[in-house]
Amino acid sequence: xxxxxxxxxxxxxxxxLFTFLFGLAxxxxxxxxxxxxxxxxxxxxxxxxxxxxxxxxxDVVIRRIG
Length: 66
Hints:
The chain has helices at 4-7, 10-33.
């Protein structure tokens, strides 16, 4: 295993590894920020108000039991 470091410069290899891992971490965080569940900056979005259906009072039928 030690012979691998004779082929690659350890300093350049570690810098390349850390740069790649940092870029990957940034990419993962941006992907999570774009989702509703894991957006820790804006918080979860509320459901749209247009989805709520109001029933007019004239359509409500009240039955008397008893």
